[in-house]
Amino acid sequence: YKLGNRSALEWVLSEYKEKNISDETLSEQFDNYKFSDFKGKVIDLLRKICTVSIKTVEILEEMGKI
């Protein structure tokens, strides 16, 4: 399924990836996000999204929508 024009998986990967801040002042003060700190949480979230996606397809197949 999609959230806007992206799939849920694309959205999560985009939101949780590390981004480089080009302004050095901002980077020094606010660039403290590291993906490795949230890796377990992201993997768990991706697992849940995959489960919901699979269940949604199964339900739609049962309803004859696919």
Plain-language structure description:
The chain has helices at 8-16, 24-30, 35-63; strands at residues 2-3, 6-7. The mean pLDDT is 81. Strands 1-2 form a two-stranded antiparallel sheet. By secondary structure, the protein is mainly alpha-helical.
Ends distance = 13 Å
Main-sheet strand order equals 1-2
* Number of strand elements: 2
**Into which percent range does the helicity of residues fall?**
55-70%
Q: How much strand content do the residues show?
A: 5-15%
Identify low-pLDDT runs.
Answer: none
Main features:
66 residues, mainly alpha, two-stranded antiparallel ribbon, 3 helices, elongated
Q: Concise description?
A:
This protein has 66 residues and is mainly α. It contains three helices and two strands, in the order ββααα. The model has no long low-confidence stretch (mean pLDDT 81).
